Fold this sequence. Notes:
The complex is a heterodimer. By secondary structure, chain A is α/β, with parallel strands linked by helices. Chain A is 34% helix and 19% strand. Chain A has helices spanning 23-38, 54-57, 84-96, 116-121, 136-151, 155-169, 183-187, 216-219, 250-262, 268-271, 282-291, 300-305, 322-325, 332-344, and strands at 4-11, 47-51, 76-80, 102-110, 191-193, 196-197, 206-215, 227-236, 274-276, 358-365, 371-378. In chain A, the strands form two sheets. A nine-stranded mixed beta sheet of chain A has the order 3-2-4-7-1-8-11-10-9. In chain A, strands 5-6 form a two-stranded antiparallel sheet. In chain A, α3 crosses α14 (332-344) and α6 crosses α11. The radius of gyration of chain A is 19 Å and the shape is globular. Chain B is of the alpha/beta class. In chain B, the strands form two sheets. In chain B, strands 3-2-4-7-1-8-11-10-9 form a nine-stranded mixed beta sheet. Chain B starts with a strand and ends with a strand.
Amino acid sequence: xxxxxxVGVAQTKFEREKRDLNYAELVYGVVTELFEKTGATxxxxxxxxxxxxxxxxxxxxxxxxxxxxxxxxMKSESKVSSDxxxxxxxxxxxxxxxxxxxTLVVAHSKGSEGAPNLIANAAFDPxxxxxxxxxxxxxxxxxxxxxxxxxxxTEQDVALVSVKNLANAKKNPYAQxxxxxxxxxxxxxxxxxxxxxxxxxxxxSDGACxxxxxxxxxxxxxxxxxxxxxxxxxxxxxxxxxDRDLTTSPALAAAARRAYQMASIDDxxxxxxxxxxxxxxxxxxxxxxxxxxxxxxxxxVQLLKSGVTAINGxxxxxxxxxxxxxxxxxxxxxxxxxxxxxxxxxEAGEHQIPHAKTALAxxxxxxxxxxxxxxxxxxxR
Amino acid sequence: MPKxxxxxxxxxxxxxxxxxxxNIPEMIREAVDRALTDAELTIDDIDAVVIGNxxxxxxxxxSDMWASEGSGAVMKPCxxxxxxxxxxxxxxAGAYYHCASGxxxxxxxxxxxxxxxxxxxxxxxxxxxxxxxxxxxxxAIGGLAIEANLYMTTYGxxxxxxxxxxxxARKNAQNNPHAHLKHDLTVEMVLNxxxxxxxxxxxxxxxxSDGACxxxxxxxxxxxxxxxxxxxIKAAVCRHNHPYIGDVWWDRSTLESAAIEAYKIAGxxxxxxxxxxxxxxxxxxxxxxxxxxxxxxxGPGEGGKLIDDGSITMEGxxxxxxxxxxxxxxxxxxxxxxxxxxAALQIQGKAGARQVEGAKTALAxxxxxxYWNEVFILxxxx
Lengths: 381, 382
C-alpha cells in the first residue's frame, strides 16, 4: 500500500440541521474547499467514489443528487452504500489497479431530513425483529448490557468515555456536541434505551466530507504533506443478534489483524500515536479498543481509567471527540480518517497530538458493529 | 497497467415474477451455490464479497448486512455498491478492482432483487429531484419514452422496428433456462399491447423479476490455476451524465463515450468485426435498436436496418442479447451483472442453447440513473 497518499481533506462543521443546504449544495461546499486547499481542479480528478444511503437521503440512487456537485459528468463514479472508510478503500483499489492516478472520495448525510428510528428499524428482519420496534439504540442497549454484565462494568464506568470525548470535542471546531460534562451529567441525561442515555449516544448530524487520494507519482502536485495509506482491513460479522456473541467483535479483530499485518504493526499500543475510532455509543469505544488489541478483552475500562486513551495519554483515542461529538451517518468513518490526516500533518489545532507519525482510523456499519474497516495511516512513506 | 483479472464462474437463479418459496438471503444463496459449484470451489475459497441491490425497492435498509448468511460474507470482507440500474455492472467493477488492486485473489460479486416484494416504480421515482422532476417523470418509463420518441423522429424509424426487437429478444430468451419471459410474440401482438408511455408498449418494456446472480472474479494466477477457460476482463469503463433529465445530453451518449474508451483499452478498432456477441442492457425494446449505434456496430440511425436484415439475431454476424436481455429478465440489482455473467458464459463456451459458436470477444453494458452507462469487454485471451 506504499504507493497511495491522501493529499487533501475537507469536512463541514457538523450540525443538527443544515436547513439552508440541499444534498448537492452540502457536497459542493466540501469539494470546493478541497479543491481550494489542494489547488486541484475537476481535470485533476480521474474518478470518483461516494458514500451515501438511499434510506437516509430518502432518494433511491442517493449518489445521483450529488453527481454534478462531485464533478462526475463524463467520468466514472461509483457509490459505496456503506461507511465512508469502505468508500476510501474502493477509491484506493481503483488507483492500485493502475487505471487511475487520483480518486475523489466524498461522503454525505443529512440526519435531519429523516426519521432515524424508522430508518434504523428498516435494517432489521421484517418477519422476526422489525415489529418489535427495534432500532439502533435498542440493539446497542442489548450489546451494552451484555458487555457490561460480562465484565462487571457500571453505567458510571461507561459514562467516562462520554466525559473524555465530549471534553476533547471542545477543541474541535467541526464538532456538534462538546462540553465539560461530568459522570453525573451523563447519568442524568435521560435513558434512550436502558442502559444507554442521551450523552452515551452519538448525535444525529448533517454534514459532508471529502478526501483526495493520489498515486505517489502525482501526489506532490497537490501537497507537500502527503499522508500515506499503510494498511487496511475490513470484515463483516453475521446478521442476527442472537447468532453473535455481542460482548466481543471478531470482525473488528480480523479487520485490525489484516491492517496491522499490511502496515507491519505488531504492538499497536506502542506503534500507534493516535486513534480515531467509531464510538457510535460510549460503551463501543471500550469494546473496540479491546478488539483493536490496545488491551485484553474486558480491560477497555482500565485502559480508559489509566489515562492511556486521554488526549495527553500515550495512545489518545478520539481527540476530536469521535462520533459522540458528531455523527453524520456514512460520513462518520471517513471523518475519522480526515481527523487522522490532520493529526499526521500537524494541522489538528487545539486537539493536536504532538509528533503524531502513525495513526489508526476505524469505520463501522450495521448495528452493534456488524462490519468494520480499519486503516493505518502514516506521515512517512 | 492494471493487473489481469478474469471471470472464472457464475451462477443465476431461474428468474421469475414471484419467488414465494425463498426469502431474500435464501434466493441469494441459490445463485452463490450455483457459482461455487460452477467454479468447483467452496465459500471458504472466497476472499471477499461485493454485493448490491436497490434498497428502496424491497424497503430493506442495510440489505448487505441482512444478506450475510446468503451471500457467504460472514467473517469475510464485504462491500456494498449500489448505483441504480447499473448496480450489477458497478458490483462487477467493484469485484474487478478488488482483484486488479492486488489486495484480493478470489472475489464473489452478487447482484439481486426481489421485485415481487417491491413497488418498483415508486422506488425509482425517488431518484429524481423532489421539487423539479419527481412529479413529471413517472418512474423509469417516462425518460425512456422521451429518448425512444426522439430517436424515432430523428431517424425516421417506426414502432414496428422496436416491436421486432421485442419479438427477437423474447425468442432468444426461450434458449435461456434462467430467463423470465419467453413468449412467442408477433409484431402485431407487441403493437396491440397497451401503450404505457408513447411509443413504448407493454410488451416493449422490461418486466420486474425476482432473481439473483453471482459471479466469481479471480486474479491472473488464481484464474489460471482454477479455470480451464477463464473470461478475461479487457476493459471496464463507466461514464456519467447530468443528474437532471432536463440537462441530459441525448445526443452525447455516455454509452458511446464508455465504449470508445473501452475499445481503446482493449485494442479494438473495428467493433462490428472484432466483437462476437453483445449483452446490451435494454430497458425497453427501442434500446436494442437505438443503442447499438453508440457501440459503433452501425452508423447513426442504422439500427432499424440491422433489425430488418437479421444482423443482430442469433443467426446474424453480431448477435445481441442471446440471453433474451433485460426486456426478458429484470431483477434490477442483478440485471447488469447478468449481462456480464452472460458475456462470460459465451467466452467460456458454457452458454448452452444460447451459445454463439466460437465466441472469443464479448461486450456487456449496464445502464442506469440519469442515462449513465458502464461497458465491459471480455475475451478468451489476454
